[in-house]
Amino acid sequence: MVCVEGAAAASPRIALAFYGLFRAVPFTFVKIKANLITPLEEATPFLDIFLHSLLVSQRSVERGGDEKIASRPPDYLAFVKFNETRRLCSFAVETQLVVDADNGIAERARKEWAAPGNRNLRDWHHYTRDSFANILRGSYSLFSASKLVRAREREGGVNYSHIVFARPDVRLEGPLRWRDFPFHVPGHVVLVANTQHHGGLNDRFAFGTREAMLHIATQFEAEAAAAVPSRGTNSERRRAFHLHSLLPNVTIAFTPLCLVRVRDTGAVVAHDLIARRQPCRLPSLPRLVPLLRPGVDRTQPCGGAAA
After folding, report:
1. Which pTM value belongs to this model?
2. Percent of the chain with pLDDT over 70
3. What are the φ/ψ torsions at residue 108 (nearest 5 degrees)?
4. pLDDT for residue 295
5. In terms of residue numbers, what domain contains 80?
6. Is 306 inside any structural domain?
7. Of 114-118, 148-152, 226-230, 300-304, which gets the smallest average pLDDT?
């Protein structure tokens, strides 16, 4: 593994942190490399990659009815691929069963599923307890990835100017237009895709200033400390509400980025391939300030994308 040394005032120093499950990487890595890592390398020579993965166990029933729990090994090929970029700085792998037990994921998911405010998600969007558990696991992994970034800062005596959070099970159908990031705007800034906000902010990708991104990563802890289950409460609304708690305000910029979820079999979520630009309206969150750039915001990112 290699962590970039040195710094240059003229170039941003960017941490690219991946979090979640890495089983789909054999089907996503080529486009992650071409459409995310390579554009960021064009933006700066100071790019480090961090990975946090949850290791999933499989349950099987043997002859005689005995249940066996077998560790499903992480896709080491995925780590090899990221290491070959010569950008991998640090990674960590945790067992999901242990993470669930240590953080009360099952009970928290049960309370959220049963909360009156989530009736719409249960009845109309078919959220299950496991749906809420997966949201919590994702925010835990994101928080853990951010701790790898902070550890590198302390150990290396550097601070990243910008951080990117991305999921390894999401395929980028076109290159990140990193020049869409408003480097000239002061304060907290976050760049997100201009699609699939679902009443909040698209949570599959974010590129932002250091303080804003580290704040996003504290969502897991903030929700754990809350006295009541999260309101709202698909993952997109959670991100928006949590980011809104950062003072004094956050500029939200958009870029036409087509993000397609990929299962561990290689199958894609078909409707992601035809996602169209979606206006982001956050009237109840005044501290999130959209940066209006019609020439960027109105671009359709997924038109004509192939499976």
Report:
1. 0.91
2. 87
3. -65, -40
4. 83
5. 13-297
6. no
7. 226-230
